[in-house]
Structure of MADS-box protein:
Amino acid sequence: MGRGPVQLRRIENKINRQVTFSKRRNGLLKKAHEISVLCDADVALIVFSTKGKLYEFSSHSSMEGILERYQRYSFDERAVLEPNTEDQENWGDEYGILKSKLDALQKSQRQLLGEQLDTLTIKELQQLEHQLEYSLKHIRSKKNQLLFESISELQKKEKSLKNQNNVLQKITTKAVLEVKPFCLHSSEQLMETEKEKNNAIINTNREEQNGATPSTSSPTPVTAPDPIPTTNNRKLNPVKFVQSNAAVKANQEDQGSQKLNRLRHKQATASFRHGCSGQVTHEGIC
């Protein structure tokens, strides 16, 4: 036969009551632990015995945290479910106060914009004027402050740019000083080359004249190349020097060709007078 329903009533036997309390307490603590682990719930269990002894259980968080959450939740729920009539009256009064303040602020704003000034007295208009002057003074002060800050920043930027410009000038000057000796060396080499070319041309002209003239003819004097013109112990521009050398070369060639033409004309005249072939030998004209 199965067990019948157990009547829930106080156990009169003190020993049986204590044994039943111990068994049921342990089962209750076990069930609280199981539901906290299985369902990941926050569980708080408090049990006081007939003698006033405390038995408690709390899950992951502490007992104090769970009790604070309970108090906070129960207070909010009571405030929603049981609204206080005094609070409602206070809310009505506060609404009226806030509405009047809003209307006053809107009216003051319109007056500052120059609207609804018909109802104002002279004293109120003077107060409004002083308020506008005070506001304008603060606005100008703030504007001047911003302008000064902007000018200061621009001055700092100008100083920074000047420093950068000085650094770039130093770098450029250093680079020019490094490149200048190389340019001078190159110009000197160019002038020496032109000098050698001029000497070679002069020697060639002299050899041609010696070969075409008789032995009695006087040799053409060799003109030494002009030295490099200087002005106050400073060398002239290499380009101008090369141009002057080219002009000297062309002049010398013209002079050589003119002398050669005059010599041939004399030979032709002498041969015509003497009736010979006009051949030129080393001994003279035949």
Remarks:
- Residues 187-285 form one domain.
- Helices lie at 14-38, 63-81, 85-112, 122-212, 238-274.
- Residues 213-236, 276-286 have pLDDT under 50 and may be disordered.
- Strands lie at 44-48, 54-58, 230-231, 234-235, 280-281, 284-285.
